[in-house]
Each structure stands twice: as C-alpha cells, then as structure tokens.
Amino acid sequence: MSEKHLITADSCKRSARLFNYGTIAGALLPIPLGMLWIAGSMFVYAANAHHPDPRVAHYIRWGGYRFYAVAGTLTVFSNDLAAFLGGGSKGWLAVWALALVALVPWSLYDIWKAGREDWKDLIVETHK
Questions:
Q1: Using an 8 Å Cβ cutoff, are 23 and 59 in contact?
Q2: Is residue 52 within 8 Å of residue 7, measured between CB atoms?
Q3: Where are the alpha helices (DSSP H) in the chain?
Q4: Phi and psi dihedrals of 23, rounded to 5?
Q5: Diameter over CA atoms, the chain
Q6: Which pLDDT belongs to residue 13?
Q7: Rounded CA gap, 92 and 122, in Å?
Q8: Residue 125: how many CA atoms within 13 Å on its side-chain side?
Q9: Could you report how far apart the first and last alpha carbons of the chain are, in Å?
Q10: For every one of its 128 residues, what pLDDT tens digit does the chain have, with 9 covering 90 and above?
C-alpha cells in the first residue's frame, strides 16, 4: 500500500538554503561552537542529499563541497597558515578571516540563487 505526501515549494526552498545558513553561522561562531556545525552539517547533508527535488540536492552538495574543503584545508594547514600570517592571535584571526572570505560570499550567493528558483510542490509516493 502506498501513501502520497506533499512536499511544499517552501519546504524545498528552505531545504536548499539550510546548509548554507548553517555554514555562515558556523563560520561566524568561535571555534568551539563552530565545531558543532561540523557535526550538524553531516546530518543536514545526509538528510537532504537524496531529496526528491534534484535542485535541493544540488545546493546541498555544492554547499558541502565548499564547507568540507575549507574545513579539511584548515585541519591540515591552519597552524602553518597562522604562523605564516603573523603568528599568535593575529595569525589565527587572519586564518579565520580567510575561512570567512572563502565561505560566506558563496553561501550568500547560493541562498540568494535558491530564493530566485521557481520551486514547485512535489507529490511523493511512499510505500508501507
């Protein structure tokens, strides 16, 4: 037996924007709190990567590519970058600023772009 569920256009748009909202919030928060977004981002990514609307999955995937690339690069090179950019708190602030420059403009662009998409309601059939 199958049931039909409605996924509204607003829900699709919200799902497409969610990862980018989290990325901006995670990038703006101090390190211990921003690390929570790494865990939360995995849940958001996994929950939406196979969304019935392929455009939602597209926005989630590209947001994930950007975020995980920056997070991975900082994991490996942050100490060296901080030392290269002046050391101490000045160097760490410069590393944080580089991460913000890499993440925030593209995330804002994706949020804007998803808002301009023509989202439609979807009817999804589920099987019991």
A1: no
A2: yes
A3: 9-28, 31-48, 54-84, 88-116
A4: -65, -45
A5: 65
A6: 96
A7: 46
A8: 3
A9: 6
A10: 789 999 999 999 999 999 999 999 999 987 777 888 999 999 999 999 999 999 999 999 999 999 999 999 988 998 999 999 988 989 999 999 999 999 999 999 999 999 999 999 999 998 87
Residue 25 burial by Cβ neighbours in a 10 Å radius (0-12, 13-18, 19+): middle
Number of structural domains (the chain) is 1
* Single-letter code of the amino acid located at 77: F
The tokens of 22 are what? 């989290």
Dig out the tokens for 94 from the structure.
Answer: 């410069």
Q: Could you give the 3-state DSSP secondary structure of residue 110?
A: helix
**pLDDT computed for residue 55 by the predictor:** 96
Pair of tokens at residue 109: 């662009």
Q: How many CB atoms lie within 10 A of CB 126?
A: 9
